[in-house]
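job 3f2a | input accepted
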Amino acid sequence: MPREISAFSNPLVKRIQSLRQKRHRREEGLFLAEGLRILTEARENGRIPEYLFFSKEGASHPLVRTLVFDVEDSGGQAIQTNAEILSKLSGKDNPQAVVGVFTEFPSALSVLDRTSADIWLVAERLRDPGNLGTILRTGDAVGAGALILIGESVDPFSVEAVRASMGALFTVPVVQAEWSDFLPWLRSGPGQLVGLSLDTDTDYRAAKYTSPAFLLTGNEAQGMPAEYAAECDMLVKIPMLGKADSLNAAVATAVMAYEVLAQHRG
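job 3f2a | predicted structure (266 res):
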């Protein structure tokens, strides 16, 4: 039976609100996700929240009722609350009807099976949570094996990144690794490392991509370091016909990923 919380001073509300900060997420091993669409996506991929907060108005929705049942059946807590507390938890003035609290599920290079997918996305020092979320959505769309974050990147479990992923965080594995670990792992098996760069004459549509292809996108502001580019099997560029000098990192990744997908599909 769902419990009810209506006071801002409730210790659990304060604890869950603190997960908006990276330090507390790391300490607890928990993160926030909001919205019925994202939580339903998580449920369909076997991820059930430890805590589920939902509004009285949303309690009658069949998907909310299903989430409540699954949370309680798995030993979690379903909590009915008000819009003000949902707003406090989500940080939005117009909160979604449900907020879930999940256990973090980071992956490691060692558990990835490179034969399971033709396309793998690699982002170096990605800083913007919106870009991370969009790249995850692209990864889901093209059937990427994982998103591998190299170096000091944005936290994939931040509220902003989870929101931007629109549920793709639950469908595409995310691995955080240093370049010094990633490169030996990559070279230990098959894999074509393709760097997106302006310092090449090779048009991305003229290149030939093999499987599995690892698509490396550099930092939004600085691009990829020269030593990383030197390790790539191939550097390609997207032609720029306007006055801007580069595309947004997430957009460039999507353009590249769909070209690779098109070639692999013949």
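job 3f2a | The chain has ten helices and eleven strands.
job 3f2a | closed
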